[in-house]
Design goal:
Helices cover 41% and strands 20% of the residues. By secondary structure, the protein is an alpha/beta fold. The longest helix is centred in the last third of the chain and has 24 residues, at 241-264.
């Protein structure tokens, strides 16, 4: 099987070096090949120079294809990578992800089931100390897959570890959203994967495992940010935005009361759970109050 692994990077050289080190350790099945397309999306930290210094063959059966897209935008960079790729399967990870040594073997096993797309397992790399407030819900908010059920169908995927068959064509990534787009720096992977899954069946395949190395990025503020944008994205894609907004407005006082109750009882973990819900509700209402207008899905349900 010919597989293309695509990733975009911008000013995260140390993360990228660890990412490619893990790719070098991959076991490549006999008769298979892997091309790794790394798009430097306008870095100024030496990424472009470092990539140009690497050999074309990272490891036996693994070829490096460095690319450059100066205009900011992760979606734009991934479209650049797709146009340069040659694999029958396209896989995607982030530049702070480290794939397991058997990742490629598991990917090929997954596609032998007849699946047209695979969501790989994502474990969170939290460093030496796990925050006291980490919970299964927070792991899910941070795009971990510990709560997902093995080999079940998926309707959207997480871009830090997913793969699709190239057959029957692929949609373009929406360049109006995603990191690098100040107004809407979110939702690019769920948007693209949903459109892919309209024409091909997808499975959750945890054996295709990777670690998303978050380390010092595991902060309360990041969880709140993700919840806010999750709610904003939910409202933007909802076919009944007004109803969702009214339901959310009615539910917020209950969450505020729950927050106050658990704080008074000295239950910080439960209080934070209410905070996560309130952050998502705030995102939903923010979309309704105008933040969602201008998003490609707001006026055009079909999106980009």
């Amino acid at each position: 099987m010919r597989t293309s692994l695509l990733l975009a990077t911008r000013n995260r050289l140390a993360d990228l070096q660890s990412c490619l080190a893990a790719i070098r350790r991959l076991r490549v099945p006999c008769g298979s090949s892997l091309e790794v397309l790394v798009v430097d999306n306008g870095s100024i930290d030496g990424t472009e120079e470092w990539l140009s210094s690497l050999p074309a063959e990272l490891a036996p059966g693994v070829r490096l294809v460095p690319l450059h897209e100066p205009q900011p935008g992760k979606s734009r960079a991934l479209n650049r990578a797709i146009s340069a790729s040659t694999g029958e399967v396209l896989a995607f990870i982030d530049d702070d992800v480290e794939v397991a040594p058997d990742w490629l073997e598991a990917l090929e096993d997954g596609f032998r089931t007849g699946a047209g797309a695979l969501q790989g397992g994502i474990r969170l790399g939290l460093g030496q100390t796990t925050p006291w407030w980490m919970s299964p819900r927070v792991e899910a908010i941070l795009a971990g897959t510990a709560l997902w059920t093995e080999k079940t169908p998926v309707t959207s995927m997480i871009g830090s570890n997913m793969a699709v068959r190239r057959e029957d064509g692929l949609p373009a990534w929406c360049e109006e959203i995603g990191p690098g787009v100040p107004r809407f720096p979110f939702g690019e992977d769920s948007d693209w994967s949903r459109r892919c899954l309209e024409t091909r069946p997808g499975l959750f395949w945890p054996a295709m495992a990777a670690t998303h190395v978050l380390k010092d990025r595991v902060r309360l503020g990041e969880v709140l940010r993700r919840q806010f944008y999750g709610g904003l994205n939910q409202a933007i894609h909802s076919p009944r935005r007004l109803r969702l907004s009214l339901q959310t407005l009615g539910a917020m006082p209950r969450e505020m009361a729950r927050l106050a109750w658990h704080l008074l009882r000295g239950r910080p973990e439960r209080a934070l759970d209410a905070v996560w819900t309130l952050a998502r509700q705030t995102g939903i209402l923010s979309a309704a109050w105008g933040r969602g207008q201008g998003h490609p899905h707001w006026a055009r349900p079909e999106g980009c």
